[in-house]
Each structure stands twice: as C-alpha cells, then as structure tokens.
C-alpha cells in the first residue's frame, strides 16, 4: 500500500512539473502586438464597407477635402459610427474658391474657421437623395442650416451647390457636390 501511495505521489509530481514547464514554454513563445495609436480611422479593414472618410480618401476627386479634414482635425470625428450625411465638394468645387482664402484656411491660425466651414457640410443622419425635398431645411453640425431646393430635377443646397452623385458608406452617406457651402456670416 505504501508503494502505491509513493507511486501516485511521484506521478502527480511529474504531471505537475510537466504542466508547469508546458505553461512556461507557451508564455515565452507568446508575443504581444502593440495597438495602433489613434481612433477608429486607424482600424485596418479591407472586408467591410468603408466609412465616409475612407471613401473620400479613396477618391481622386476629393484630395482637397481630405487635406482640409486632416488640417481641421475632423478625421476621427467622421470615422466614428455616425450616421452622417456629408456633402462633399470635389476638387473642382474647391478650385472655385479664391486661392488666397483657401491657402489661409489651411493654416493653424484659421483652423477654427476651417472646422466651421467643414462642419457646415455635415448633418447627423443618413439622408438619401430621394429623401431630400424642395424647401427642406437641414440642421448642420456647426449649428447653422442649409436649405434644399429642387430645380430642373437637380437637388441644390442653398441655391449654390448641386448634388452630382451619392455614395453610401458604413456610417452614413456622401453626396458629392459641385460647390463649397459657406456658412452664413454671424
């Protein structure tokens, strides 16, 4: 009986030692992956539908808008869950803005003005083009309003920019526009 007890104890000891060395081997071979700094805009996902920022980044017609969003520190905000409707001026639309004014807006000293203008292009909801109606007033992120009108079948914003295309995104919708919307003067 004494031999059996010693054999069982020896077996338990060997089993415990084997488990301990196995855990040590596993933990030493595990490597930690550093998390990416930044917000949701830094998440790499090639399978899901892209958010409004990633759609804009992928468009050759929106390089000025993307540069402005980066300068205004709005990339993270527009990469979040939303939903957002973004009225996205094309590069050609920005070309209509006075060059000196556009250059000045892209400086740190004018960041608040640039943020105000860009936030005037965003509303918090996902509004498809067929939802927009003549005379409709949209509250924009900057606190001001945009008025929708329909002229000759074209959807216009403040009678100054027309929607020329619409692109769905994972966190809303982008309406490509042919003009830059300027908030009303205070």
UniProtKB/TrEMBL annotation:
It comes from the Bacteria. The keyword Isomerase does not apply. Residues 24-37 have a biased composition (Low complexity). It holds the Pfam family Fasciclin. Residues 1-24 form the signal peptide. Keywords: Signal. InterPro entries: Adhesion/Biosynth-related, FAS1_dom_sf, FAS1_domain. Residues 49-181 form the FAS1 domain. Residues 24-49 are annotated as: Disordered. This is Fasciclin domain-containing protein. It comes from Aquirufa aurantiipilula.
